[in-house]
Design goal:
The complex is a heterodimer of chains A (635) and B (451). Chain A has 4 domains: 184 residues, Growth Hormone, Chain: A, CATH 1.20.1250; 207 residues, Growth Hormone, Chain: A, CATH 1.20.1250; 115 residues, Cytochrome Bc1 Complex, Chain D, domain 2, CATH 1.10.760; 112 residues, Cytochrome Bc1 Complex, Chain D, domain 2 (Orthogonal Bundle). Chain A is mainly alpha-helical. In chain A, helix 11 packs antiparallel against helix 12, helix 12 packs antiparallel against helix 15 and helix 26 packs across helix 30. Chain B starts with 6 loop residues before the first helix and ends with a helix. The chains are: A mainly alpha (635), B mainly alpha (451).
Chain lengths: 635, 451
């Protein structure tokens, strides 16, 4: 590869790639559609307008390499940018359907001319020092700019104006560079591992997935809210795009880099499409989607311009034309069509796209690593057969609900956050006691002692928490238990697993529970913590831990109200059956503190055993203010 | 002859001058799992800070990922270098079995992949660090059997080679194969929920005797390793003998302690564990008695420093009151980090650098060396601070506040830096596999043998 101008720094290439992407993303793919909606162009008319854009794009993608007019690369680029910018400005006018179709065709034609001309002569603008990195940088900047919140949330007219101004800036950039004849040689370094047609098919599959996912997110409020609404989301998306674009450029420099990038892009995009099937996983999809898009977007520019072998500029242009016509325009149209008609990407289609992208890689690996695959297959099958034989030989008795619940405890990795061991002669005893002997422990298969506590010890949880509390907590831990960091396990209650787990935890209590409860009644918060109790802090803690059940509008109370043994009393109303009806304030405060710390045995009221004395005292103080008039008592 | 050479000459002659392809492949697989496990480590550090993200993971929540993270570190990163070591010891990189080394590594990695999927799918034995159940419980030992068979065939094929003619060498290699044959079966049996080690009744953790036992197993490996990696220097017989005599003495002490469920408050327990401190001066002296490739210097120093830190903190953390304070807290997470990310990782890298010879450059970049070790130190300090606070107040972790979150953010950052360092090694290992100049390949090995 030779370069014509040693002084050339390559920033023009970065700018032109970035401008082209910004124009396409923020205007052609986004603002123009919104503008059409605001003009009342929808349904069949919208399809006609979009078809006109696709026709213009396909036509000029294929025609540009064959045009004899404007042989200078700069002129071609200038006209492409000019047409694109003019089209953007025209959308500011009050367009009818026919005019919109004409403008759409101009947008497609301008983009076709611009993209094909740019990649055909990209080396002139990037220079030959790290051209792949510059493509990655330009793509990353383009995506980052599009996700800049003020631009992303601007009106379609503003976005169109910005796109037009950028085209103008692009023309200025192009004019800065005197056209130089570049000897076309095949670039040294990264080479495609497979044929042009196979690469074209991969790009088409990826663009199809991308367009379908984009359309579905854009038109599904729940998904849109979970993916690209709000400044933080947009900044995160932009930065993910930027990082993935740079990583893509870095990967493309490596051996088999193109296939690595296309495979990674498929994994990310296919994963995003599958995650979008469940709106609750939109957040995760919003991580994978930009990564996948940026990965392949860099390759979409780099492959025809720098990687694909081409004997001449004309051949490079023709290859680019086919890629953008088939993969770009047709793939995009098919993806949008899928989004419009189905509203989701079917898993079978993701599988098909995977076959297109991964099968060539698979066959390459198969050819080169026959011995490895053969031995691995043999061992996998042998182990599988042995496993089946052992299962058949060992007749496993039907397990009880508690045993199944214990297995759930193990399966979910509860042991990684919860111990089941109360250390004797330690503060554990008061919080989570009573103590279990090692002999009792050894009866368990295996003992689930654990070695790290991110949450409370559970050795005696069955004596401290009711089945209802456990169930409610599994559904929504942070709501039921203050600032709990435990994940929700609501999914376990889609079948019997959740109830099994609750049944198991409910059995976790030893014979010494009654004795331990007596010890709890002798506990008092330290005098210093009582003296320093703070009602303001108490109010904050009451809000966090108590109101979810003890307020008329509490979330847990409303969700589970039919299941409580006795509906928790509203703090402002009562009755408070477990408080002394009269007597010194200190005595009532003391009892309140005990209830807050250890709960009320036999009811759904939990304790907060791990809270320090000063917080317990503050909660008690605040509660004693709220509970001014106890109605009656049972104790 | 060796005795007449100056140390520098001996250093340069001892190790392989070029990179054995099979060892490079083992290093690559090992690093692949290090990167994967570190990436998962970063994920779980993020989940601890933003637990709401669990919602997006469906059933693959925090608890399942922790299992995958720990097991991949243990059975991937810290175990696969052993395969490279055994390839070297048995000469598997040459002869008719050379082409089967890489397939055996694939089988190991496939077993780990299946294991990861099974843990994520909820298949677990409930035994931390021996978490093989269902199909994976058969598959992983089967992968070890595949490695064992390769070593057997290698020994048979190379039986008459010059390196195997000494009776002592043949006996040692046969003995090694016998011991290695036990490993898959031991892993299968030990994964059974019915087997559980001795319990310290005051903590629920290991007893002093069981800690001494596992530490002595590590010491045995430390003493054996040099014999498979390099040659002795002349004049250090007494140093080497001292090491083995002390090991035998400590093993007798350990046997005398028995395997009962005994508290760490008993002086016999913590004093006997303290006997490990003797290895602070002995280990560096022992390793100085062998010739090492000049490329190993950096990581040899690192592993010896981490070993010293591990022995000292291991004992201090076991002392009464200290263990009572730190048990179940992040403080012990920090200590286990000294063991795994500090000592074990630097030891493994040192071994791989020695095995790779000139190819050991992949681990010797200054940036990744300091990135890794600096991040591990930071991680350990952060976790010790968190554990110290948590020892006084369990709600420090259970109900996260600003200080806990700050510590966890810093921990996340150190995890990301470790991930970057491991990526650096992985990328270089991938390059190494393709570098023709550093690859002896099986043909070259065969030529060397013939010569």
């Amino acid at each position: 590869m030779r370069h014509s101008d040693a002084r050339f720094s390559g920033w023009q290439g970065v700018c032109l790639v970035a401008i082209t992407y910004v124009y396409f993303l923020i205007f052609a793919q986004f603002a123009f559609l919104q503008r059409l909606a605001s003009l009342g162009i929808a349904d069949t008319e919208l399809k006609a307008v979009m078809a006109a854009m696709a026709c213009g794009g396909i036509l000029f993608s294929l025609l540009t390499p064959r045009l004899k007019l404007w042989p200078s690369p700069n002129l071609r680029l200038g006209f492409g940018l000019g047409a694109s910018g003019a089209a953007a400005l025209l959308t500011l006018l009050p367009l009818g359907t026919a005019a919109a179709m004409a403008v759409a065709m101009l947008i497609g034609a301008g983009l076709g001319l611009l993209t094909v001309a740019l990649v055909t002569h990209l080396l002139q603008f990037t220079g030959n020092r790290n051209p792949l990195f510059r493509v990655g940088l330009g793509t990353g900047i383009g995506y980052l700019f599009c996700n800049f919140p003020p631009l992303f949330t601007a009106s379609p007219q503003t976005q169109a104006t910005v796109a037009a101004l950028l085209c103008l800036a692009g023309i200025f950039v192009v004019l800065q560079k005197t056209p130089q004849p570049v000897a076309e040689t095949v670039m040294q370094g990264p080479r495609p591992a497979s044929s042009f047609l196979r690469t074209l098919a991969c790009f088409a599959a990826l663009v199809w997935l991308d367009s379908a996912a984009f359309y579905i997110i854009q038109n599904t409020p729940a998904l849109k809210a979970g993916t690209w609404q709000g400044s933080i989301h947009l900044w995160a998306n932009g930065l993910l795009h930027f990082a993935a674009a740079l990583i893509s450029a870095w990967l493309l420099l490596r051996r088999r880099g193109l296939w690595l990038v296309l495979t990674a892009a498929f994994v990310a995009l296919g994963g995003a499409c599958l995650l979008l099937l469940d709106p609750q996983r939109a957040l995760l999809a919003s991580v994978f989607y930009p990564i996948g898009v940026s990965l392949y977007s860099v390759a979409l520019v780099a492959y025809p311009s720098l990687i694909a072998p081409a004997a001449s500029a004309a051949e490079r242009g023709r290859q680019a034309g086919w890629i953008y016509a088939i993969a770009g325009w047709c793939g995009s149209a098919m993806g949008i069509g899928m989004g419009q008609n189905l509203g989701h990407v079917p898993p079978a289609f993701v599988l098909g796209a995977g076959a297109v992208v991964l099968l060539p890689v698979f066959f390459t690996v198969l050819r080169q690593r026959m011995r490895e695959l053969a031995l691995t297959t043999v061992v996998l099958l042998a182990a599988f057969s042995l496993d089946r034989i052992l299962i058949a030989v060992k007749a496993t008795p039907r397990s009880s609900q508690v045993e199944r619940g214990r297995q759930m405890y193990i399966s979910e990795g509860c042991i990684n956050c919860h111990s089941q061991y109360v250390r004797p002669n330690s503060p554990d005893v008061l919080m989570w006691g009573p103590v279990e002997s090692v002999q009792e422990l050894r009866l368990q298969r295996p003992p689930l002692i654990g070695n790290r506590r991110q949450g409370p010890d559970l050795a005696e949880v069955g004596g401290r928490r009711s089945p209802l509390w456990l169930k409610a907590h599994f559904y929504n831990p942070p709501v039921v238990s203050g600032a709990s960091i435990m994940p929700s396990y609501a999914f376990l209650f889609g079948d019997e697993r959740g109830n099994d787990l609750v049944a198991y935890l409910n059995t976790l209590h030893s014979a010494g529970v009654a004795e331990h409860q007596l010890a709890e009644r002798t506990w008092h918060p330290s005098p210093s913590s009582v003296a320093e109790a703070n009602a303001g802090e108490g109010q904050r803690l009451v809000q966090r831990y108590c109101t979810t059940c003890h307020s008329a509008t509490g979330h847990t109370r409303l969700t589970w109200q039919a299941s409580f043994k006795r509906l928790p009393p509203d703090l402002s109303v009562g009755p408070f059956l477990y408080l002394p009806p009269s007597g010194p304030d200190a005595v009532r405060m003391d009892r309140l503190a005990q209830i807050v710390k250890f709960g009320i045995p036999g009811t759904d009221m939990p304790g907060h055993e791990y809270l320090p004395d000063n917080q317990i005292a503050s909660i008690s103080l605040r509660l004693s203010q709220l509970i001014a008039q106890p109605v009656r008592t049972q104790e | 002859m060796e005795e007449f050479m100056n140390p520098k000459m001996r250093d340069e002659l001892a190790p392989p001058r070029r990179t054995p392809q099979v060892v490079a492949s083992a290093a690559w697989h090992s690093l692949l799992w290090l990167v994967t496990a570190n990436a998962i480590g970063v994920l779980i550090a993020i989940l601890l800070l933003f637990p709401g993200l669990n919602q997006a993971l469906g059933e693959w929540t925090y608890g399942r990922w922790v299992t995958v993270h720990m097991n991949l570190e243990l059975y991937g990163w810290t175990s696969l270098p052993l395969a490279g070591f055994l390839f070297k010891v048995y000469g598997a990189g040459s002869g008719p079995t050379a082409n089967w080394c890489r397939p055996v590594l694939w089988v190991w990695s496939a077993a780990l992949g299946v294991g990861a999927l099974s843990w994520l799918s909820g298949y677990s034995s409930g035994k931390l660090f021996l978490d093989w159940s269902g199909y994976a419980r058969i598959l992983f030992p089967a992968a070890l059997v595949a490695l064992w068979l390769l070593l057997v065939f290698t020994l048979v094929a190379n039986w008459s080679y010059a390196e195997n003619t000494a009776i002592a060498t043949r006996a040692a290699k046969l003995m090694g194969l016998l011991i290695l044959l036990l490993v898959p079966f031991l892993i299968y049996i030990a994964s059974s929920p019915a087997i559980y080690p001795a319990v310290n009744p005051d903590t629920g953790g290991p007893t002093g005797a069981s800690q001494l036992e596992s530490s002595l197993a590590v010491v045995t490996i430390l003493l054996l390793l040099p014999f498979g990696l390099t040659q002795r220097k002349a004049g250090y017989t007494r140093t080497i003998a001292t090491g083995w005599i002390v090991l035998v003495a400590e093993s007798l002490l350990c046997a005398a302690l028995g395997r009962a469920d005994i508290s760490h408050h008993l002086p016999a327990q913590y004093l006997s564990l303290g006997s490990l401190l003797v290895w602070l001066p002995l280990t560096p002296a022992y390793y100085a008695a062998f010739n090492w490739h000049s490329n190993t210097r950096r990581w040899r120093m690192a592993f010896l420093w981490w070993w010293a830190a591990l022995v000292v903190t291991g004992w201090v953390f076991f002392l009464p009151r200290v263990l009572d304070h730190f048990k179940f807290t992040d403080g012990l997470v920090g200590h286990s980090f000294i063991a795994m990310a500090g000592f074990t990782s630097s030891l493994l890298i040192f071994v791989m650098v020695q095995l790779l010879g000139e190819g050991g450059w992949i681990f010797n970049r200054t940036r990744s060396f300091y990135l890794w070790n600096g991040s591990v130190i930071a991680y350990v300090l952060l976790m010790t601070i968190a554990g110290w606070r948590e020892g006084f107040d369990p709600s420090f972790t259970i109900v996260p506040g600003i200080f806990r979150n700050l510590l966890y953010v810093l921990r996340l950052l150190s995890g990301i830096l470790m991930l970057l360092a491991s990526l650096d090694w992985f990328v270089d290992a991938s390059t190494l596999l393709r570098e023709p100049g550093t690859d002896t390949g099986t043909a070259d090995f065969a030529k060397e043998k013939t010569a």
